[in-house]
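Summary of Year 1 activities. Much of the first year was spent building the evaluation harness for sequence design. The harness presents a backbone, in tokenized form, and records the residue chosen at every position. We chose the following record to illustrate the format because it has been used consistently in internal testing since the harness was completed.
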């Protein structure tokens, strides 16, 4: 029986404009989760990025994921469990950090329980814990993932992305909770707006599938959530305009925000600087990351028996 397991899980950017709660893209930005049976006390240790925003206790969502595996497998949870999280993803910024933690807990606990559950099972558990499938599906499988929820089951298709596509992340210093970003959304939408988003999200998927990335400039436009959520982010419209003027193909909120993601084939540094400068003009410090898309998804990277 394995006594220790470590998983590496990529961050994600979701929605990509029109694909609200459906589309997710894995990014080359990672957190690592290690679960170990120590036989002593149960503890949760968090290090890395934004540790002041992440609980170091059994309340951590990753530990809840561990408990989910033991409960569903019918195996007794060991008295001494040590969960160590090396966080590499800015917290509460729309980059899927909670999803990576959930998957880390599920993957490592599943191994320690001798793999009773398939990846499809783990996706369904993760979606239940997270409340929606888009970010956990992308982080689990890698690439661009389309997710559909049918009752309680998640159906997914993964597409590989052209490695020439880069994502420039402008990450503001402030945080924005997913709940606050959801609360600002309207309860109903116009029929014409629904058609608008269906057409754009379909074009987006087709552009990735066929490699016609120039179509992203049209495909990432949205009318369902960004017009409302953008009001929570000072300077949003100006940041978008600056990124496009600097050469970005397209630009969208990353998840619920406040991170803004620009999609580029070139001029990545110029795009990042222009976004950062505009945020600064609005009195908001920000970090810029230029990263590629992850194609491997979450994976176990070590275990000791």
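For this record, the design step produced the sequence shown next.
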């Amino acid at each position: 029986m394995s006594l220790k397991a470590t998983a590496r899980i990529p961050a994600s950017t979701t929605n990509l404009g029109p694909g609200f709660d459906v589309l997710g893209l894995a990014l080359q930005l990672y957190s690592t989760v290690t679960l170990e049976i120590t036989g002593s006390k149960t503890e949760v240790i968090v290090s890395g990025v934004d540790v002041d925003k992440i609980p170091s206790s059994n309340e951590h969502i990753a530990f809840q994921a561990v408990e989910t595996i033991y409960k569903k497998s019918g195996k007794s949870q060991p008295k001494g469990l040590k969960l160590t999280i090396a966080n590499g993803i800015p917290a509460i910024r729309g980059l899927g950090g909670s999803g990576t933690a959930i998957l880390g807990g599920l993957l490592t606990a599943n191994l320690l329980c001798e793999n009773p559950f398939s990846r499809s099972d783990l996706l369904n558990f993760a979606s239940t814990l997270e409340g929606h499938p888009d970010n956990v599906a992308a982080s689990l499988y890698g690439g661009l993932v389309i997710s559909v929820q049918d009752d309680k089951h998640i159906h997914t298709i993964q597409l590989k992305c052209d490695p020439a596509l880069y994502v420039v992340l402008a990450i503001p210093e402030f945080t924005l909770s997913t709940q606050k970003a959801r609360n600002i959304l309207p309860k109903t939408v116009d029929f014409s707006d629904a058609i608008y988003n269906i057409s754009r999200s379909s074009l987006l998927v087709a552009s990735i599938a066929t490699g016609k990335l120039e179509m992203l400039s049209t495909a990432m436009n949205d009318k369902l959530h960004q017009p409302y959520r953008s009001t929570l982010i000072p300077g949003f419209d100006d940041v978008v305009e600056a990124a496009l003027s600097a050469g970005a193909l397209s630009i969208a909120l990353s998840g619920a925000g406040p991170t803004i993601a620009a999609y580029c084939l070139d001029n990545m540094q110029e795009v990042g600087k222009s976004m950062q400068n505009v945020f600064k003009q609005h009195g908001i410090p920000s970090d810029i990351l230029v990263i590629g898309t992850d194609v491997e998804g979450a994976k176990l990277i070590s275990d000791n028996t």
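The chain has ten helices and eleven strands. Quantitative recovery figures across the full test set are reported in Table 2.
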